[in-house]
Amino acid sequence: MIAGVILVLPGVIAVMALSWIYVIFGDFGFVAALFFGLKAAVLAIVLQAVARVSCRALKNDAMRAIAPLSFVVIFAFGAPFSLIVLAAALIGFFGARAELQAFALVVATGRSAAPMSTTSRHF
Predict the structure, then answer these.
(1) What is the model's pTM?
(2) What is the domain partition of the chain in residue ranges?
(3) What is the pLDDT along the chain (123 residues), one digit of tens a residue?
(4) Of 62, 65, 77, 101, which is least packed with CB atoms within 10 Å of its CB?
């Protein structure tokens, strides 16, 4: 609990401070320009985070296809997030049951787990 508070508290304080500054001085050109620049910086940080997470999480073409499709379905059609998660789980389940290579078991190394013969085991 304490770790969670310590993690969240700096962000809460920063957002509150920026909110007060905007409410009090938001009509001044300098402050409006400052907040416009902050929006651009926050957008760049978020896009960089999305790119880094997607490179690590999306390991094959099936995952790379499901991710943007999920984005479109959520935002264009307003589908609930739980439905997207359920659909992705079903796609993964049936893809694995059909033994498609894109849905093969992924081990901790991030590579698909291929059956190992008894002569090629490396420890």
Answers:
(1) 0.54
(2) 1-57, 59-123
(3) 899 889 999 989 998 998 898 888 888 888 888 888 988 999 999 999 989 988 888 888 888 888 899 999 999 999 999 999 999 899 989 988 888 888 776 554 555 554 444 444 444
(4) 77
